[in-house]
Design goal:
Length: 72
Protein backbone atom coordinates (compact mmCIF):
# COMPACT_ATOMS: atom_id res chain seq x y z
CA UNK A 1 0.00 0.00 0.00
CA UNK A 2 1.32 3.41 -0.97
CA UNK A 3 0.31 7.01 -0.36
CA UNK A 4 -1.68 8.26 -3.34
CA UNK A 5 -0.07 11.70 -3.19
CA UNK A 6 3.62 11.05 -2.55
CA UNK A 7 3.82 7.30 -3.25
CA UNK A 8 5.58 6.50 0.01
CA UNK A 9 4.99 3.01 1.31
CA UNK A 10 2.40 2.82 4.09
CA UNK A 11 1.83 0.19 6.73
CA UNK A 12 -1.34 1.80 8.08
CA UNK A 13 -2.92 4.68 6.14
CA UNK A 14 -3.73 7.80 8.14
CA UNK A 15 -6.69 8.59 5.90
CA UNK A 16 -8.59 6.67 3.27
CA UNK A 17 -10.80 8.34 0.70
CA UNK A 18 -13.11 6.22 -1.43
CA UNK A 19 -13.20 7.44 -5.00
CA UNK A 20 -14.73 6.15 -8.21
CA UNK A 21 -11.48 4.33 -8.92
CA UNK A 22 -11.31 2.67 -5.52
CA UNK A 23 -9.80 3.59 -2.18
CA UNK A 24 -7.11 6.27 -2.08
CA UNK A 25 -4.85 5.98 0.93
CA UNK A 26 -2.81 8.81 2.38
CA UNK A 27 0.03 8.91 4.87
CA UNK A 28 -0.09 11.13 7.95
CA UNK A 29 1.87 14.02 6.40
CA UNK A 30 -0.17 14.18 3.21
CA UNK A 31 -3.45 13.72 5.09
CA UNK A 32 -2.58 16.65 7.36
CA UNK A 33 -1.54 18.83 4.42
CA UNK A 34 -4.73 17.98 2.53
CA UNK A 35 -6.84 18.81 5.55
CA UNK A 36 -8.45 15.40 5.81
CA UNK A 37 -10.30 15.12 9.07
CA UNK A 38 -10.21 12.13 11.33
CA UNK A 39 -6.53 11.40 10.88
CA UNK A 40 -4.46 9.69 13.50
CA UNK A 41 -2.53 12.63 14.95
CA UNK A 42 -0.33 10.41 17.07
CA UNK A 43 1.16 9.01 13.84
CA UNK A 44 2.30 12.47 12.73
CA UNK A 45 5.96 13.42 12.94
CA UNK A 46 6.76 15.84 15.73
CA UNK A 47 7.15 18.76 13.31
CA UNK A 48 3.57 18.58 12.16
CA UNK A 49 2.05 18.06 15.57
CA UNK A 50 0.61 21.11 17.21
CA UNK A 51 1.94 21.37 20.74
CA UNK A 52 -0.57 21.17 23.52
CA UNK A 53 -1.25 24.59 25.01
CA UNK A 54 0.42 24.87 28.36
CA UNK A 55 -0.21 27.26 31.19
CA UNK A 56 3.17 28.55 32.31
CA UNK A 57 2.38 31.17 34.89
CA UNK A 58 4.99 30.78 37.57
CA UNK A 59 5.96 33.55 39.92
CA UNK A 60 9.50 34.84 39.38
CA UNK A 61 11.02 35.64 42.79
CA UNK A 62 13.40 38.15 41.15
CA UNK A 63 10.51 40.37 40.09
CA UNK A 64 8.33 42.51 42.30
CA UNK A 65 4.60 42.20 42.19
CA UNK A 66 2.81 45.04 40.44
CA UNK A 67 -0.47 46.26 41.79
CA UNK A 68 -2.61 46.49 38.70
CA UNK A 69 -5.19 49.24 39.06
CA UNK A 70 -7.88 50.33 36.71
CA UNK A 71 -7.26 53.83 35.33
CA UNK A 72 -10.05 56.19 36.34
ZN1 LIG B 1 2.01 10.99 1.18
Amino acid sequence: MRCTRCHRPLIVPAATVTTRHGASTYGPVCAERMGLSGINRAALPAGLRRPRAQQTTTDDPAQMALALEQAA
